[in-house]
Amino acid sequence: LASDAQLEARGVEVQATDRGGDITWHGPGQIVMYPILDLNRLGLRLHGYLRWLEEIIIQTLSHHGIEGRRDPDATGVWVGTPSRKICAFGVRVSRWVTMHGLALNVDPDLSFFDLIVPCGLAGRGVTSMSQELGEQAPAPDQVLEVLQQKFREALMETIQERD
After folding, report:
1. Where do the H-state alpha helices sit in 17-116?
2. What's the predicted TM-score (pTM) here?
3. Among 45, 95, 120, 130, which is disulfide-ready with 107 (CB 3.0 to 4.6 Å)?
4. Catalytic residue chosen out of the listed positions 119, 126, 129, 137
5. C-alpha closest to that of 101 among 80, 75, 121
6. What gap in Å lies between CA 115 and CA 54, rounded to an integer?
7. What span, in angstroms and rounded, lies between the C-alpha atoms of 134 and 2?
8. Tens digit of pLDDT for each residue in 102-146?
9. In the annotation, is 119 catalytic?
């Protein structure tokens, strides 16, 4: 939506990628996670992997008092009514090894999303944990700690199911 001059004025640098998910913004206040996993070893295919990642984020949000959910029409994790995206996904898989990943909005400047059509989804809102929880919002390092724990638990469970 923004011109090159507007992007430059805001300090935004555009980077082309080879992952799915259309356009997004990454910046301070987000937790960006790019797992590199062999989906064959985990017994997952692309859609299963995306649902697996969504579940990890839903559990992380739940730990902090936010009810996250899936949207059958759009990958990611959503909250509230009307639904607003709190976590975006953009994944690439090559030879069943994952690249790229997700961005969880903990406390970013959400005005940057006004410069784009996030994930190519016109008319859909974006939110953050701090916007949803106000003063009760956890610090990014607290969220990261829980996210890492939930990811480890999900990974161990998936590996054990394969054995």
Report:
1. 39-42, 46-63
2. 0.90
3. 130
4. 119
5. 75
6. 25
7. 29
8. 999 999 999 988 876 667 677 789 999 999 999 999 999 999 999
9. yes
